[in-house]
Design a protein that fits this description.
94 residues, alpha+beta, PH1570-like fold, four-stranded antiparallel β-sheet, 4 strands, 33% helix, PH1570-like_domain, PH1570-like_sf, PH1570-like domain-containing protein
Length: 94
């Protein structure tokens, strides 16, 4: 379903030409995660009250989710345990 000029929502993901992004996600809360991503992408453009692409995707997937449920979380990454020589060399191939 075309929800925005550049945003196409499909069964388990979406593709967005504006942000050059395609995400497919599977699992229990997959569509809620996808909705959250769509909201975060388009909220700066539409404002926080009514984000049309979010509402469109919600309707397509048949999910009741209020925008207030989209809560950003702090991303905590652990230090890498292993690193390859290619990464150390900056990805150059000899």
């Amino acid at each position: 379903m075309q929800c925005e000029e550049h945003l196409e929502v499909f069964e388990n993901g979406f593709e967005d030409g504006k942000f050059n992004l395609r995400i497919e996600y599977y699992g229990g809360d997959a569509r809620k995660v996808l909705l959250s991503i769509i909201y975060e992408l388009y909220q700066p453009i539409y404002g926080s009250e009514y984000v049309y692409p979010f509402e469109c995707a919600k309707e397509f997937w048949g999910i009741f989710m209020d925008y207030s449920e989209v809560v950003p979380e702090e991303l905590r990454l652990s230090k890498p345990k292993f690193i390859s020589q290619a990464l150390i060399d900056g990805g150059r191939v000899y």
